[in-house]
């Protein structure tokens, strides 16, 4: 029998070797990084004061409480007022560089695009809902998905207004059925899901129909809950594993089950494609005369899980437009002069049927929407994770002008909400809603409602066209609007920014 002390000695040697290995590795990495910082003249960004300097428990609790009280964006703005344009925080072994500096954001999103990505934390946080879709993946997987999606948003398709007309007709009919006193926000959610599902998949989900099917309304509610819970998981960061929410799991399952009908449709299309000759395919293509995302998706893969992930991600992509429409009518319902000015401008260029060219001539409408996007950006905060050690040309030092070293796995979080309200970029009246400012402003990297760089939103033109068309139609249908809720707006952050209280209003014919 081998004496016990032999095992103890062997274990001690193994532990000692393990410790020595990681100590040497740490020292070598530290030395290499020090040389890189010295070479580029890097300075650290200011660090936000933390009561818990090691784990940042106080910051995590602040984030959680602010989220529950619907004031998370105000908390971010207050932190930047205190910490500057760029500052760092440390929470549970994760260093985050927080910024509202357009020069730093431009480097992360564009100039040094390959150095950053979504990262494993976002993938784990959103995976129960989004799987391996375009909003969670990186590198070659993302590139392939992006190439697959891009043709869906060609200008010729986006500017065809016929698809919007019937759904906006139905929206207006519902408003009248409710005696013109209604909450517009859920109607806008239903509108965009109906429009975008028909646009991408060839058939509407029918949320605006007289009697939407029960499984459709269940999907609608589940999608909203799952999106909000996903944001909560992201805010928890490395503590995400403490997020135990059975309702979240149930809602993700409902969304996936709903998406299955489109998966089945895609697989059926793929089977039919394999049974016809090339000549028959040409004839069928000529008869269809339109690109459907779901058909092209079926050609790319027959994996049901991959198909489902793609479909759910594209359904979620429609989530930004109802928020934009809601904030537009929030502002219009609170300002009679603004309503009259915008309505008169729209009527001046309006034609029946409304055309894309007429919409493009409505310059004040475009400026109005730009101002909505500035004060209420759909994605109010976003982040990227460093794939490797890298150096950004700005962000370091007390003034943020020196190079900044970013270690592998560090997170860069940027807030368009805070950046869009900077007075040094948009004037002393940056907190005020004033569409006229866009008569002279030429937006650059300080204005990012649809993100920037290679991951810029491919559906930007679709969202702008649908928003412009919907606003123009409502403005020409109703003569005035009255707010039925005079409380200040409160944020509701799901996967995009919305209003907690909705838009309670009275539209007058």
Question: Helical residue percent?
Answer: 55-70%
Give the full name of the CATH homologous superfamily. Answer: Cytochrome P450
Please, how many domains? Answer: 1
CATH architecture term = Orthogonal Bundle
CATH first level: Mainly Alpha
**Low-pLDDT segments:** 282-289
Quick one: biggest sheet? 5 strands, mixed
**Structural class, from secondary structure content?**
alpha+beta
User: Could you give the order of strands across the largest sheet?
Assistant: 1-2-8-5-3
Based on DSSP secondary structure assignment, what is the total number of beta strands? 12
Query: Distance between termini?
Result: 96 Å
Helical stretch tally = 21
Would you tell me the overall average pLDDT? Answer: 89
Radius of gyration: 25 Å
How much strand content do the residues show? 5-15%
How would you describe this structure to a colleague?
This protein has 509 residues and is α+β, with helices and mostly antiparallel strands. The protein has a single domain, classed as Cytochrome P450 (Cytochrome p450). 57% of the residues lie in helices and 10% in strands. The strands form 4 sheets. A 5-stranded mixed β-sheet has the order 1-2-8-5-3, with helices on both faces. The protein has a 3-stranded antiparallel β-sheet with strand order 4-12-9. A hairpin with a 5-residue loop joins strand 6 and strand 7. Helix 15 runs parallel beside helix 21. The protein is globular.
């Amino acid at each position: 029998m081998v004496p016990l002390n032999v095992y103890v000695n062997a274990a001690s040697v193994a532990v000692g070797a393990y410790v020595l290995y990681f100590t040497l590795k740490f020292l070598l990495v530290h030395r290499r990084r020090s040389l890189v910082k010295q070479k580029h003249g890097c300075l650290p960004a200011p660090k936000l004061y933390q009561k818990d300097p090691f784990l940042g428990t106080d910051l995590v609790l602040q984030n959680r409480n602010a989220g529950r009280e619907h004031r998370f964006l105000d908390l971010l703005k207050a932190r930047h007022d205190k910490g500057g344009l760029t500052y760092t925080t440390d929470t549970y072994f994760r260093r985050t560089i927080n910024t509202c500096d357009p020069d730093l954001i431009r480097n992360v999103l564009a100039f040094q695009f390959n150095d950053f990505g979504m990262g494993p934390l976002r993938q784990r946080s959103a995976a129960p809902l989004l799987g391996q879709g375009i909003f969670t993946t990186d590198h070659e997987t993302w590139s392939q998905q992006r190439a697959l999606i891009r043709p869906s948003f060609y200008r010729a398709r986006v500017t065809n207004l016929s698809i919007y007309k019937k759904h906006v007709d139905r929206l207006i009919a519902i408003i009248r059925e409710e005696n013109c006193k209604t909450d517009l926000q859920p109607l806008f959610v239903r509108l965009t899901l109906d429009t975008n599902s028909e646009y991408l998949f060839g058939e509407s989900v029918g949320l605006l129909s007289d009697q939407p099917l029960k499984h459709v309304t269940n999907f609608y509610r589940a999608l909203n809950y799952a999106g909000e819970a996903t944001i909560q998981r992201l805010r928890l960061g490395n503590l995400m594993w403490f997020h135990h929410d059975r309702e979240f799991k149930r809602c993700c399952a409902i969304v996936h089950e709903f998406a299955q009908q489109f998966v089945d449709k895609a697989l059926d299309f793929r089977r039919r494609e394999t049974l016809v000759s090339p000549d028959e395919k040409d004839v069928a293509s000529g008869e269809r005369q339109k690109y459907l995302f779901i058909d092209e998706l079926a050609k790319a893969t027959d994996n049901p899980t991959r198909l489902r992930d793609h479909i759910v991600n594209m359904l979620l992509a429609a989530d930004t437009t109802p928020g934009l429409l809601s904030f537009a009518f929030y502002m219009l319902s609170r300002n009679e002069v603004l309503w009259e000015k915008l309505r008169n401008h729209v009527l001046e260029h309006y034609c029946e049927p409304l055309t894309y060219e007429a919409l493009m001539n409505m310059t004040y409408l475009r400026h109005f929407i730009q101002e909505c996007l500035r004060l209420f950006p759909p994605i109010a905060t976003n982040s990227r994770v460093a794939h490797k050690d890298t150096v950004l040309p700005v962000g370091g030092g007390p003034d943020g002008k020196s190079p900044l070293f970013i270690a592998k796995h560090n997170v860069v979080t940027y807030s368009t909400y805070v950046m869009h309200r900077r007075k040094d970029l948009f004037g002393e009246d940056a907190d005020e809603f004033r569409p006229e400012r866009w008569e002279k402003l030429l937006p650059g990297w300080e204005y990012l409602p649809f993100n920037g760089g290679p991951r810029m939103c491919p559906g930007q033109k679709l969202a702008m066209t649908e928003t412009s068309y919907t606003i123009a139609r409502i403005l020409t249908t109703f003569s005035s609007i009255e707010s039925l809720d005079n409380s200040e707006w409160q944020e509701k952050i799901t996967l995009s920014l919305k209003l907690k209280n909705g838009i309670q209003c009275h539209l007058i014919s």
